[in-house]
TrEMBL record:
Residues 214-313 form the Fe2OG dioxygenase domain. Pfam families: 2OG-FeII_Oxy, DIOX_N. Keywords: Iron, Metal-binding, Oxidoreductase. SUPFAM superfamilies: Clavaminate synthase-like. It comes from Rhynchospora pubera. This is Fe2OG dioxygenase domain-containing protein. Belongs to the iron/ascorbate-dependent oxidoreductase family.
Length: 363
């Protein structure tokens, strides 16, 4: 019997439930299906028509998310101010940006992508042993974080760095790369939080002081080639519940964001890190910054590898969260009520992937 912790949503017809269970029991993920030579995708991967990509909804390729170059950040105050201004614009009108010259070496980024690929393409027993959706396990592997119809065409290795993760639980093929990458991301995050604080008109240490990178949830996705890519999605439309997300993607493309009613491709840039504002930062900024809907297309080309790192407060943070007081005024009243991180996580878990994590907290 499926329970909420094994992540199969029970609220669906029995035949679909059985198919999902059978698939889940293989513990081999979507990659296992592809390796078995299927030419048609199982019905539970088929998305409702209205959620499938339509060419009329795609923005012209000239429209691109802003690129922010951190190369000159320490050159002089003029450069610093310019970067803050660009970041402010990007966080407000796009919610997504690509960071370049961020100081994480390209070799390390390549090593992460390669290590994650080797894990997903490696020893079946290693993957089987890690196959779980139990939140108590800090390192786990599964296809679809929550398995339900319509499922996504991808498999994921999850690492939850919350202070209790034992690095030796991370598969050896990608362990070193992931540990080094995590350190590097935390460093870039320090700089980014400083710049975002300035972009909100706050002292530069304000966001760092809110402890919003304490927990890092890293999801290393593998999107196998799909025999019927027009019927499914790699990742359904959603916003990230995080404070900030760093995304490393390989060179295949497929990530799209919803900007002014059109889907904009986030074109891969070698060495860049995609950064997006999560729901929690939208909330504490009182909607000054935007958490934007995005999705990943399925493709006949693949595999595509990406690694999303969600920066979050500590899950047992006891401080109340809400719109930052210093940003509020008579003309900018709070749009959200205050809450504990734990309430936020519970609300997130009980909602579907596509619903916003913010609505329960709206005033
Ligand atoms: C995510 C996500 C995008 C990608 O994991 O939340 O949006 O390119 N991933 O895999
Ligand atoms: Ni996302």
């Amino acid at each position: 019997m499926a329970t909420p912790t094994d992540g199969i949503s029970v609220d669906q017809p029995n035949d679909i439930l059985n198919e999902l269970k059978q698939f889940d029991d293989t513990k081999a993920g979507v990659k296992g299906l592809v390796d078995s030579g299927i030419e048609k995708i199982p019905a539970f991967f088929i998305q409702p028509q209205e959620l499938l990509p339509k060419s009329s909804d795609i923005a012209p390729p000239t429209l691109q998310v802003p690129i922010i170059d951190l190369g000159a950040i320490h050159k002089d105050t003029g450069c610093y101010k310019q970067i803050v201004e660009e970041l402010k614009q990007a966080s407000d009108s796009w919610g997504f940006l690509q960071l370049v010259n961020h100081s994480v070496p390209k070799d390390l980024l390549d090593e992460v992508i390669q290590g994650v690929k080797e894990f997903h393409e490696g020893d079946k027993d290693v993957k089987e042993k890690l196959y779980s959706r139990d939140r108590v396990k800090k390192v786990r592997f599964a296809s679809n974080l929550r398995l339900l119809s319509a499922a996504n065409w991808r498999d994921t290795l999850t690492c939850v760095f919350d202070g209790s993760l034992d690095p030796s639980d991370i598969p050896p093929v990608c362990r070193d790369a992931i540990m080094k990458y995590r350190e590097a991301i935390l460093q870039v995050a320090e700089t980014l939080y400083e710049l975002l604080s300035a972009a909100l008109g706050l002292p530069s240490d304000h966001l760092r002081g809110m402890n919003c990178a304490k927990t890092q949830l890293m999801v290393a996705h593998y999107y196998p080639p799909c025999p019927e890519p027009e019927l499914t999605l790699g990742t359904s439309m959603h916003t990230d519940p995080s404070f900030v997300t760093f995304l490393l993607q390989d060179d295949l493309g497929g990530l799209q964001i919803l900007h002014d009613g059109h889907w904009v491709n986030v074109a891969p840039i070698p060495g860049a890190l995609v950064v997006n504002i999560g729901d929690l930062l939208q909330l504490v900024s009182n909607d000054k910054f935007k958490s934007i809907k995005h999705r990943v297309l399925a493709s006949a080309r693949g595999p595509r590898i990406s690694v999303a790192t969600f920066l979050n407060p500590s899950f047992d943070e006891k401080k109340l969260f809400g719109p930052i007081k210093e940003l509020l005024s008579d003309t900018n009243p709070p749009l959200y009520k205050e809450f504990l991180v734990d309430d936020y996580i519970k609300a997130y878990i009980s909602k579907g992937l596509t619903a916003s994590a913010l609505s329960p907290f709206k005033l």
